[in-house]
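BUG-346 | component: ligand-complex export | severity: low

The export step for 6-O-phosphono-beta-D-fructofuranose jobs runs without errors, but we want the raw record kept on the ticket for reference. Input record follows.
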Amino acid sequence: MKRIGVLTGGGDCPGLNAVIRAVVRSGLPHGFETIGIRNGWQGLIDGDVEPLTDFSVSGILPKGGTILGTSRINPLEKTADFQKIKANMKKFGIHALVVIGGDGTLSAARDVAGEGISLVGVPKTIDNDISGTDVTFGFDTAVATVTEAIDRLHTTAESHHRIIVVEVMGRNVGWIAVTAGLAGGADEILIPEIHTTMDEVCNNLMARYRSGKKFSIVVVAEGVNRETLGLPPVPEDLRDECGHEKFVGIANMLGKEIESRIGIETRVTILGHVQRGGSPTAYDRVLATRYGVAAVDLISTERFGRMVALRGNEIIDIPLEDAVAHLKTVDPAFYRMAKTVIGGMQ
Ligand code: F6P
């Protein structure tokens, strides 16, 4: 029997377990056994693996997170680590890898594939920013979570005649902010792709107030441009293990500034990791399952160095090279459309 190794890297998201389950189960008719690699690339360096069977993946479909654990490391950063990866693939008889990850993990996968390792990629991230696929799994669940939060914040904001600033994830792109903001009927949406000034934000909120609406919901993506808003940059020492800026907290500054400029009581809610946790929606379970099955099909036909993707309603595959060439930012027309109904479009 040939062996497939499966790993999950980068930030977790709902639907990872659905992919793992689909890889294990759809591999069986192809004659593949699956080995789970713990904690992303780190598990392959350390030789930390576990056999996955039809039985062991039972019941994981609705579970959030990843049963394998995850990490954020670059497998090619140290030559010695990469040698260990090659040695462990041989030791455990792993014929090919299914690498489930976002931009960072898939970029590493592209490079590892370039070094001659047989692998295929599966796109995950709540941010929905992987180019080459219409949708990443995890996004739909995050949007549902944020939409529910906005609905709840609406009733309390309205009762107290307050502004509530809701901070959502999205370090480089505003897909969650625009989609959930639209679904939740937010009154202002601030995203990294569109640079806004504090004057514009306050003018929109005041116009709404004058029209008789005494409360507002402002949705802000954590990675919104701070400079044009006149807010200080992220401190240099606030970085994660990969050197990415830790953005969390802009809503506090924004809320304070809004309140001091327009004098309406303003409160702040930072949704944070609530957006990444919990059970995947039906949509994400189905999409993740389709991706897992398609990844095994790619391995069975030896089409390595590729990523499965959604195009329209079809599952296709594209070179990893193209998949990570650029980030998929919010379509300006979609943002304009959202602003048309929430107000504040110049
Ligand atoms: O998974 C991507 C993401 O959700 C970003 O939007 C966010 O900035 C980041 O993860 C935060 O991840 P962590 O807290 O795990 O470093």
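Assignee comment: Attached the raw record above. The first strand starts at residue 2 and ends at 8.
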